Each structure stands twice: as structure tokens, then as C-alpha cells.
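Progress report, Aim 2. The chain analyzed during this reporting quarter is listed below.
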Amino acid sequence: MKKIFLILITFLIFINVKALDLGLNSKYVYVYNDTLDRTMYELNSNEEVKVASMTKIMTAIIVIENNKDLDREITIEDSDLRDMYEYTTTGFQAGHKVTIRELLYGILLRSGSDAVNAAVRVTTDTEEEFFDLMNQKVKELNLKNTYFSNAIGKDEDNYSSVHDIAKIMEYCLKNKTFKEIISTPMHYIERLDIQINGPLYKKDIKYGIDLSLINGSKNGYTSLAKYSLVSYGEKDGITYIVVTDYADNNKNLFLDNSKIYQHFFNNYGYKDYNINFNIDIENSLEEKYNVDINTSVYLENDYDESLLNYKYNGKDKITYLNKKGSKLGSVSIYYDDELISTVDIKLNKDIEYETKAYTLPIFVIIIVIIILTFIVLKKILKKKKKYNKSKSKTNYVKVKTVSKEQVKKDVSKEIENFIKEENSDEKKLKILKSTIDINLFFDTLKYMDNIDKEQLEKDLIDRCFENINFKDIEELKDLYTKLKLYKDKMNEKTIKYYNKLFKYCVEEYIGENKKIN
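Predicted C-alpha cells for the chain:
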């Protein structure tokens, strides 16, 4: 059943994206709008295929990222010229002194295997380490159909998909050095008299094909992979990445790419789109807030305007809490039920509210101030009482056992009435999150449901510890006794937590052999 579902999904995606016939020779194609993160066209895009020297875009980015100084000079060795049969070379000879940057021109423009061998040698201690870096990058980019067994692009156990190659290219183009090199038509090393031509160099003249929309590319060929090309093109603020594989010959390969770039750059563009709707305003002299946005969406030139719509996701009411510049939500724009763009909606003006809008928050503030004042005063009186008590006693005083009933009597009736009569769970929660009065905490807690009581209890214990002298065993005993009275109301995990804390404090500050009863 799962397999049938996947086939159905694949079919629907294929129908949605591949709704045109470009008459291409390549068997595998993927067209990606990098600017808008949209797949524009695909043909067998996730099938595993041999990708030949398109592999070298991954090789190049590994070299760039793992060499701090690309202008460091190295010497070409005899070992760098091995296994050159049937593979393209840059023209380097043993003994040539070249920079790593010049090796990169050889790798990306000429597809030189000699440049690859030298670059791998000076980047890692072994070839296997370099291949591991390539496959680590595959995992980092979350590619599902790619594995590299070598850095040149030999068929062997080396494969990918046109989709994955496009994702590698997308990542590589973010690197300034990579983009600069792959966008160079031809590079000349004067001291060695070596001219390194890129894949597109004079191909437009040779085949009579318009390739002007392609900014940079990397080609590939083996007898199994046939002819392939990964490229990018930029125009009018839009960047496309195109990957084509398994074309019959070079001419058909470049013709395919020319057709693709011509079609999408000439038949697609930004279209103006107006978004207008209202959001209610609570307790304001204005009843509605008007959202009026003029944006643009990237669509085919002959798009059907009736298929264009939007959906607002955000606040259904604006209140005094929403200030100018704050985000209200976002608008998702769809074309033929496909999400094509998202626009954030922000409050762009100050709103005048009626006086009653501020009544509740002012009341809340007053109540909070009263509660905090009470807590502070109680804490001061408690410390003063303890100080006077300590002056009249010896260093070791046995702590009186306080009954649960007596502790409850200590709680002010005014606080009890406030907790019972207060309708706002939000304000009660503020008490639970701020008080250091154990009695007040647990009397408030009993009126609350659907909250994380365990965490609130742990937070209370932490606050209590922050407000006592760890080294004073009397204070520790006093806190321990008060908490113990509410043991039957505590979460089991909380009990373990405060027992562990008391044990630590006693051992750390009082002595390992001391105990608190």
C-alpha cells in the first residue's frame, strides 16, 4: 500500500512540474530556480546515474574548504600524472610549480585529472581521507542518491542523481572562489604557457547555439554516463541551476541547455500582485486595520490570474499589545494550489485605543505590586526574626518541629481570599513562578490545573536556595522542614530533587556526617 502511495505522489509531482515538452535529448534533467527555491522542471531527476566529471564540482569545493591558502605553491609530481588514459588532462608536467588556485582552474574548466590528483594529494594525507570528506559533505547536504568513490568521476562505484548534483551546485555557488572560477570562460597560465578552456569556450560558434544565458558550467563524459552538464544562469535577479545527463553527443547536450534557459528566462517573470484584507481591532476607535500590500510573484507570462490566490495566517484581532512594527502573521500565495511565495504582515502604524483597553493591564500591575510587596516584607520580617533568635541561642540549636496545621495558620487570610477570588489563571501562574513563600506557593498551586507542577515545584526549590545562606544549618533546616510538610502534595521527582539538593548542601557546606531531620 505504501509503495502504491509513493508511486501516486511521484506521479502527481511529475504531472505538476513536467507540464511542458521541451523536446530534449538528455534522459535525465533537473531545472531549479535557486532564487525562489522552486523546482521548475524535472525528468527522472532522482534516479541514480553515472555523473562522470560533474563529480569535480564536489572535488573543487572540498579543496577550497580544506586549504586556507589557495595561492600556496606546490610542485606537480610524477604520481599526479598516473591513470590519465581516457581522461582529460590540464597539461601540467612533473616539476611544474603551480598554485592550488591554478589547480582549481584545471579541475573546473578543463576537467583535468592531473589537477585533481595533485589537489587531492596536497589537501589530505590519503585519497581515502579526501573521499571521506566528499561523502561527509553528501550527508551534510542530505543527499539521498549520491556516493563518491573517487574525485575524478570514474564510473566505478561513483554515482549521483541530477537532483543531487543540482543541490551540490547550489551549495558550491555560495562560495565566492568557486563561483568566480567556474564562471571563467578561459584561464591562461603565462609562465607555463598553458591555456585552460572552460566547457562553453567557443561552443556557441562551433555548434551555432546561443549559450549566452549560461554563466558557468561543468561538463562530464564517460562511455556509461554519456554527455552531461551542470550549469547556472543569472538574469533579472533570478538564478537557475540546470543539470542534464545522458545526452547522445556534445551538440545535443548544449542544445538541451540552450532550450531550457531560453524557455524559462524568456517565458517566466515577476508579476504584480495586490493583497488587500482587514483585521479586527479590539477596543479601538478604529474598527478595522487594512492590510494593503503590493508584491510580485514569479510566474509564466501567460499565467491564469484566476488560479492565483492567497491565505492569511496570523492574528484575527489586534490588541493594545501589538505595537507598531510587530509581526501580525504572514500571507501564503498560491498558484494552482501550489505555494509559490510567502509575505510577512507587520503593523505599520500606531493605533489609538479606548481607555478601557488599559484598565485590565493596570489592575494586573497593581495586584502584582501588592503581592511582591507582601512577599518582600514577609522576607524582611523573617530574616529579622531569625537574626534576633540566633543572638540569644548557642551555635547549635535544635530546630522545633512545626506541625502542618501550624504552618497553614501562618498564611495570611488576605492571601487565601485573594487566591480563591482571583479568576485569572495567568496571575496565579505569575505567583507560582515568582514567590519564595512555600505556604503561598502550595496554597496557590491547589487552585491550578493543566500545568507542569513538577517544574514549578523545582523552580520554587531553586528560588528558595537562592535566598538562603547555604552555610547556615539553621536556615537549611528551616527550609527543609517547611518543604517536608508539603511532601504528600509534591511530585515524586520533586521530592527526589529537593532531597538530593539538601544532601549536597549539607555535605558541601556543613559536613558529610551531618544530617537534616
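Residues 359-391 form the longest helix (33 residues). Residues 1-18, 391-412 have pLDDT under 50 and may be disordered. These observations will guide the mutagenesis work planned for the next reporting period.
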